[in-house]
Amino acid sequence: MGSFAGQSEITVSQGIRMMFYVLHPNETSFKTLEEVPDYVDKATIYFIIMLTLEMIVSWAWKGHTIRINDGLASLFAGVMSRLPDVAFRGTEIVSYIYVWKHYRIIELPWDSPWTWWLSYLGVDFAYYWFHRLAHEVNIFWAGHQAHHSSEDYNLTTALRQSVIQKYFSWIFYWPMAFFIPPSVFAVHIQFNLIYQFWIHTEFINKLGPLELILNTPSHHRVHHGRNPYCIDSNYGGTLIIWDRIFGTFVPEKEKVIYGLTHPINTFDPFHVQIQHCIHIWNTFWETPGFFNKMSVIFKGPGWGPGKPRLGLPEEIPQVTGEEKPYNPQLPLHLQLYAVMHFLLMIAVYIHMFEAKLILTPITLLVRTGYILLTLTSLGFILEKRPKAAFLETSRCLLFLLLQKYSYMTTDFPYLLLISEVIFSLCIAVWGLKALKDVITQSKKQE
Q1: Do 225 and 258 form a contact (C-beta atoms < 8 A)?
Q2: Domain spans of the chain, in order of start
């Protein structure tokens, strides 16, 4: 999702309706792209409120809350997916503007409700085909698989986005640029994304007649399932009609087991993002023959020599309903530690986006590097990796060093003072742990 220059305020009513795509053309039509609000940014507070409500309902209804490790891994992916937007406007918008400026055939009126509704349908139709090919073409799946890697299904899963997916999705929206103004497209590409947040939940059952037209939590649960009956189905963004038309609709039946057919068993943010790229690379070189190598890239993830394009359905691993998600046991205090440091990092992350026009390129680069280091280090802690103590000690030292040279300024000066105390204590604790690990390892080698 790219950034937009528009800073128009939206009312609470508009904010709530925005989450469900229930806004009128008159209140979301703009003449220029610069006037279009950054709706995704303005939706952040509503994401947080809905996440909090889901956690409360989960605790009150099921007696437990969202798994911290899996939930954080999803948030890690969400943060990583937006980091390129600090320096670059979204590929979807940039490419769309280029086609519009150079190749448009006609210019539909930006303030017409007909243009608004045509854009709504066009974005969702293009999304269906992009999403479908993201599952059916291996190189596209390499980007999209990150979103499906969670073995839980809740609102944090909606935020588990891919870093690389956005660099091929833009192709599917190009035809609209021949006649739909960029300002209209920019509204709907955001709303289509925002709508898909609330459908990532298990707490909303079927919605009656709406199930015939809209993509709903029930339909999307199937899409995220690894049960054989769930594979390659329900690709719609806001509408389910495309799946019904093109034969990819599957209703929810028995209990859905979530995640990839071959779970990756990691919370390492980089591994979550690129593990399938590595798999394709290795498979490409191991597969004999030029055309077979090309098939590794452009046919389905389940393809192999002698198999149909999308692989053999009987090779999809069966599920029993008793599968246990990857869940390394971590003491509660370390889980809370990971949450606290993630929130401290988010303060830096939010300020970076808000102030990116006045921050120097070197500051943006340094902060981006620190954020990536934080996500990696917290991932190591969640997995109890052997190098976690050393990496966390280094991260905390780096934070204090960057703060000393004014790379970590925020709108909350007291937060920096509190952070200085917290990080100093963390260096002492993790430093001792790292030293102990070194001594233990040395004794083992003797």
Answers
A1: yes
A2: 12-246, 332-445
